[in-house]
């Protein structure tokens, strides 16, 4: 069993944990997108025409969506990698593609890390760019901040709880996906180390059979 399915239990555990955290990260990312759109709509609805409010959150919006996409991909891959170990039609394929699976998760880790770093930086240091105009006249930022305080809203990213979840939880997804990739590399190495032994045993069996057949042939000729 160990030769056909190397590190099966450890792989299932590592991939399942990575899948769980990927689902969590995907959920908080989707929730942040919904909450951000709801908050922006509520803020814009508090002003009367001809006042127009524009809100620019492209920094966290873009990096957050791309990070959430990476988490979704991790969830899909890890689920499929686990399922392949249980389906009779794909068990052999799961073992043959261990190294490819590990590289796929490494790619996702690099992708997720490259998104989380700027997102976390934006979350900790920036705020939404909120501007208000009455015709061609732009209202001063001090007035806008005063309106935010009176309405109980804020444009500071680190004060928004739904963004805080996106800034923290996907890091655990990155950690456990990295561990899962490491386990897959170890399993690939073990599968590669066990394969020559299987081949050698098969070669010995063939040699023994050939020797026996030659002996039988010589005995028949001598008779």
Helical residue percent band: over 70%
Radius of gyration: 29 Å
- Tally of helical segments: 6
Rough shape?
elongated
The count of strands amounts to 3
Largest sheet: 3 strands, antiparallel
In what range is the share of β-strand residues?
Answer: 5-15%
Could you tell me how far the N terminus lies from the C terminus, measured between alpha carbons in angstroms?
Answer: 46 Å
Q: How many distinct folded domains?
A: 1
| Arrangement of strands in the largest sheet | 1-2-3
What is the H/E order?
HEHHHEEHH
| Structural classification | mainly alpha
Which residues sit in consecutive blocks of at least 5 with pLDDT less than 50? Answer: 198-203
Mean pLDDT score? 86
Region (Disordered): 196-223
Transmembrane segments: 12-34, 65-88, 100-124, 162-185
Keywords: Membrane, Transmembrane, Transmembrane helix
Biased composition (Basic and acidic residues): 202-223
């Amino acid at each position: 069993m160990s030769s056909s399915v190397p590190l099966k239990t450890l792989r299932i555990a590592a991939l399942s944990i990575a899948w769980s955290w990927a689902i969590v990260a995907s959920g908080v990312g989707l929730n942040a997108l919904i909450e951000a759109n709801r908050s922006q709509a509520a803020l814009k609805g508090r002003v009367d025409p001809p006042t127009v409010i524009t809100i620019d959150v492209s920094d966290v919006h873009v990096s957050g969506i791309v990070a959430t996409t990476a988490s979704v991909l991790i969830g899909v891959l890890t689920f499929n990698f686990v399922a392949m170990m249980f389906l009779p039609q794909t068990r052999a394929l799961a073992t043959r593609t261990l190294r490819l699976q590990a590289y796929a998760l490494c790619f996702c880790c690099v992708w997720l890390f490259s998104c989380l770093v700027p997102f976390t930086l934006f979350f900790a240091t920036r705020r939404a760019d909120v501007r208000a105009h009455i015709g061609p006249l732009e209202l001063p930022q001090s007035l806008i901040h005063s309106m935010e305080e009176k309405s109980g809203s804020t444009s500071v990213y680190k004060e928004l709880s739904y963004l805080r979840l996106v800034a923290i939880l996907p890091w655990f997804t990155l950690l456990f996906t990295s561990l899962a990739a490491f386990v897959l590399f170890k399993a690939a190495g073990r599968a590669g180390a066990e394969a020559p032994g299987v081949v050698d045993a098969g070669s010995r069996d063939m040699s023994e059979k050939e020797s026996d057949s030659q002996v039988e042939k010589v005995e028949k000729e001598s008779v």
